[in-house]
């Protein structure tokens, strides 16, 4: 599970870096075409990066929540499995004791 989460986070970071580079490239092209000023382009890129950061935090929070739920569920399942194994071992142990006491 940890490897999957790490891959997702690294992918998200990589996507954010690519998105930043692409946003800056597009802004530069638009400035070169004279459609907007450098200052306006800078504001657009900054606004885009801010929105990306907000969404990244939301994703991180969601992932953290889901991992917590999955971990708790795994512990419950593991706990149930251990209880079943112990009960089965006790049952088998009782059978053996009954056979030995005959």
End-to-end CA span: 50 Å
Task: State the share of residues found in helices, binned by percent.
Answer: over 70%
Tell me the domain tally: 1
- Low-confidence runs: none
Total strand segments: 0
Order of helices and strands: HH
Classify the secondary structure makeup into a structural class: mainly alpha
User: Mean pLDDT, nearest integer?
Assistant: 79
Radius of gyration, whole Å: 28 Å
How much of the sequence lies in strands comes to under 5%
What characteristic shape results from the CA principal axes?
Answer: rod-shaped
Q: Describe the biggest sheet?
A: none
Total helix count?
2
In words, what does this structure look like?
The protein is mainly α. The protein has one domain (2-101). Helices cover 93% and strands 0% of the residues. It contains two helices and no strands. The longest helix is centred in the last third of the chain and has 64 residues, at 38-101. The chain starts with a helix and ends with a helix. The mean pLDDT is 79.
